[in-house]
Amino acid sequence: MKKHLLIICGLFLCTSISGQSENSSLTYHVELGATAGNGTYAPLWFTGNRYGLGSTNPNSGYLLAGISYEKQFKRGWRIEAGLDMAGGIHQAQDVFIHQIYGDFSWKMLTLSIGSKERPGFPLAKNTALSSGMLVEGPNTQPIPQIRGEIKDFLNIPGTKGWLAFKGHIAYGSFTDNGWQKDFVQPGEYFVKNVLYHSKSLMFRLGNKEKLPLEFEFGILMATQFGGDRYQKLEDGSTEKVLDMPDNLKAYWKAFLPQAGGSDTPGGEQVNVEGNMLGSWNFALNYYWGNWKFRAYLEHYFEDTSQMFWEYGRWKDGQIGLEITFPKNRWITSAVWEGLSTKEQTGPLLYDSFWGQFPEYQISANDNYYNHYIYGAWQHQGMGMGNPLIPGPAYNADHSISFRSNRVRAHHLGISGQPSSEWGYRMLISFARHWGTYDIPLDQQRKQFSSLYEATYTPKWTKGWSASAALGLDRGNYLGNSTGGMLTIRKTGVIF
């Protein structure tokens, strides 16, 4: 599937560029990043939420170069295309295509084909200050997909602007076959050719032109399905041990979660086929003059556990508060978030295929982000969700799993613009880890992670900017690390 997407997007990019006109534009961008420091790993925020361009190695670098094309047509039609190539030292891949996509849009409706940076959807968060999404967001390299979406809220006719919606549906494919095979040790398992599906629907109730209050609510669901499971042998060769269905019925079961058939393992026949997860999303916006207050809740679930209050109140998720300040020199925005994935419906697990006990009904131990077939909800070693729950790339035993998914954390982000040329941001996080229910840590472990970054955008040289950052991490989960990061960017217009 990836090859097909690359061919389609490449052809589209070429034909788009050849048809330039007054209402079209072609821009370029180049970015060079380098980190240096000590410790087992780079500071967390040198790696997290950077679309896979960061490295867990304390000393690394990358070069990214790309072009973007946009053309407007009559009657609300437009096309966008982009191509980014990247390479680096101590990266998950030495040379790779970071983005290649073509977007075909009519008014508010878009068909997007290819690999593209997507900050998180449908719940909007401040991507510069937030710790990240729980299901999927900017923490991994983009997944190639075919995606139909309404990206911005669209007013529903007849509601006079009081009710709007947005949403998407997508199918794609993970692209980390080689990384998984190289990462695992002999005797361990990995997967290849895993398929991807996601969908969302979000509503907004309110009209800020008449009442300064808006309420947002909706759902996001995502699935790993299809693919093959392999075991790596002592001589480095591999042996296929499981072939999951990837026919049209599998695509339908990913869209409408259903139990697996006789061609799947027993666990899939009891629960749903594939690794299904998602979140309920809520937000409340209040506008007061030039101030904006935004409170949000992202409630995480796996399969149907805790999807509809099966086990009492919702205990796992992320709550957040964002304040956008009136224009001033020192603080532009501030974000606080609290994260908890510790409950997971409890430590016990009972499913009927192990025997019948009519007097009991126990279903727990969801083991967030881990799966007995697909290993983990990850891509190229990084978790698809929040980086405060570190992914397999941090595992010393090279297992494709989340070593600690029972986490509680607090996070603070602040940004400002002291002058037209200078800006800053600060991220401070504190997390406590308990491991998993199946393999708990020997003790509660703690981790402090921080980033202090300044960005300079000089007026005397058009299109250039530079960021310098200090990362400081302390704790007994990922360990202590101190490092510096320098990023230089150049953007420009070709026509």
Which properties best describe this structure?
495 residues; mainly beta; Porin; 18-stranded antiparallel barrel; 3-stranded antiparallel β-sheet; 5 helices; 48% strand; globular
Overview of this protein structure:
By secondary structure, the protein is mainly β. It has a single domain, classed as Beta Barrel (Porin), CATH 2.40.160. It is built from 5 helices and 25 strands. The strands form 4 sheets. The chain has an 18-stranded antiparallel barrel. Strands 8-11-12 form a 3-stranded antiparallel beta sheet, with helices on one face. Strand 22 and strand 23 form a beta hairpin.
Treating each run of at least 4 consecutive H or I residues as one helix, how many helices? 5
Poorly predicted runs: 4-9, 11-21
Number of strands: 25
Sheet with most strands:
18 strands, antiparallel, barrel
Secondary-structure element series: HEHEEEEEEHEEEEEHHEEEEEEEEEEEEE
Question: What structural class results from the helix and strand content?
Answer: mainly beta
Quick one: CATH class? Mainly Beta
Can you tell me the CATH architecture?
Beta Barrel
Task: Give me the secondary-structure topology.
Blueprint: H1 2-18, E1 24-38, H2 44-47, E2 60-72, E3 77-89, E4 95-106, E5 109-115, E6 145-155, E7 163-173, H3 177-183, E8 189-192, E9 195-205, E10 213-225, E11 228-232, E12 238-243, H4 248-255, H5 266-270, E13 275-288, E14 291-302, E15 317-324, E16 333-340, E17 370-371, E18 375-376, E19 378-379, E20 382-383, E21 407-416, E22 422-435, E23 440-456, E24 464-475, E25 481-493
